[in-house]
TrEMBL record:
Membrane topology, as annotated: Multi-pass membrane protein
Name the record gives this protein: Adhesion G protein-coupled receptor F3b
Family from the record: Belongs to the G-protein coupled receptor 2 family. Adhesion G-protein coupled receptor (ADGR) subfamily.
Domain of life: Eukaryota
GO MF annotation: an example: G protein-coupled receptor activity
GO CC aspect terms: membrane
GO BP term, example: adenylate cyclase-activating G protein-coupled receptor signaling pathway
Domain G-protein coupled receptors family 2 profile: start-end pairs: 257-519
Membrane-spanning parts: 20-37, 262-286, 336-359, 371-390, 420-443, 464-485, 497-518
Keywords carried by this UniProt record: Disulfide bond, Glycoprotein, Membrane, Transmembrane, Transmembrane helix
Pfam family, one: GPS
Record's subcellular location: Membrane
Amino acid sequence: MNLKISNPVLIQFFSAIYEYCQLGIFPIYSCIFFFVMNTSRKKLFLPMRAHVVLKSTAIKMSLFSFQDLLESSSNMLESSLEQSWKSNPNKDNLSLAEIYLDSVEQLIDGTSITTVKKKTNIEVAACSKPNCTNTVFNVSVSLGNSDAQNVTTAGFKQLENYWPTSDDERTPNSIIVSTTTDNKQLDSVELQIDFQLLKPRPRNVRIDCVAWDNATRTWSPHGCKWQGSSNEGRCVCNHLSSFAILMSRSQVKVPGINEMTYAGLSVSILSLAISLVIEVIVWSAVVKTSNSHVRHTAHINICLVLLIADCCFLGSSDPNNISEIWCKTLVVLKHFCYLSMFFWMLSLSVMLLHQTVFMFHHVSKNNYLRFSLVLGYVCPFLIVTITALANNGGAEGLYYSRDTCWLIYDGLLKGSIHTFFIPVGVIVFINIFSMGVVILKLLDHPVSTENFVEKTATRTVIRSVILYTPIFGVTWLFGFGVMALDLTSGNITFAVHYAFTLLNAFQGLFILLTTCLGDKQFVRITRSTERHSKVLNSFDIGFERKKGLQHTPADKY
């Protein structure tokens, strides 16, 4: 195989390599680029100066084969030479990595390749049939254009580490892949690239498919589109170039979500405090039976643990400004209190379900209270304790994250967060089942020719759903949508996050509205208390007036 190379860029590359070798930027053993010979099945690395005429405009391939050039090109990408690549740009402001890629592309483009060429750091694949697929380093490149023939794809390991970049927000997460074709007149192409990510993509972190723009000397997303979290390594582009994947260094942010959360938690804390005060004030008036005693005991405990959990959530809103021990303490308290809230909700729904199904079966108040206390505090305590012990005593990075002061999520059924969401999911399912049974009982009435009964039942059902939804934690169903959907998926994910935050950050307010202000007994007692207070005030005023009329002038002296 003979090939003459007269490309000025390639000659410039030779000159740059020679200059770097002369200056000692590259070690002497690496200065064998493009000069490897096969002698008796043994590679003999000859000094570069003995075999290069830098001023020449042609280098004959009779001295060495394309395989030797590819081997030498691969050797130059070894990670041991990383510091050598970090040299200053040449007079044209081109880095060595850019000159290298352009030169090797020219070399490959001028060579007829029919089989896959595999080296340690470079692989070259080619195909001549329409709609073909090339694979290099587990990266598949498919060109869906019947007019494109002789498609050549080259993959370069390590080159992404040497590539110049001024992007502080994104980092390379794939090898650099270059694709060319003999047909330079293609109006449009559909190029599908399935990259192998170098590092796993963290959840809610966006990936950008980019191509190198020689004009601006930057990675440009123009003409390339990432296919989303379901195909996180796939890019579709409409042009040929050198491609790579850049991964963001931070997660996607939902606009305004933090402000909404802090405002909602503040309102929730105030509402829960009001709910506890109201419960204490009207306790003696509303607690007349065993059922009401158990129900209001559950309400008080739900408000109490949710109040503590919301305060801890606000306290850990800025993890960078709190110590590690405080972060860990707040995580444990949030984990326990939120779980305790749901277990108290479970005890309330179980009581309601028992009363609805077994109407004539009475359970004593003490038995209910013992069952509720074990369910409401012992169960979450055991879950939190076992989770912490199973994660190296609650170690950072295993049990909790220092960046968020919350539990760890490492993927589906991976991470300590699942010791929270799995119990919550089971409890919410049971609570919804209990609500369904109660609603069916409300709808179960004798057949009537009048519409009054149906209208009354419908209003009762709607009122029951509104009242039970916050106190049974049904709104937390959106949390499973938050866990399942990636923020890079689009607007539907943002909508789910907003719904979850709006409904649960203000949960304390909804509990106040439904269990206190929406309870007929509470309203009746409050009104009677007000009327009683007005009567007492009127009596006091009248008594004082009567007493004043009985005074005589002599009394003043």
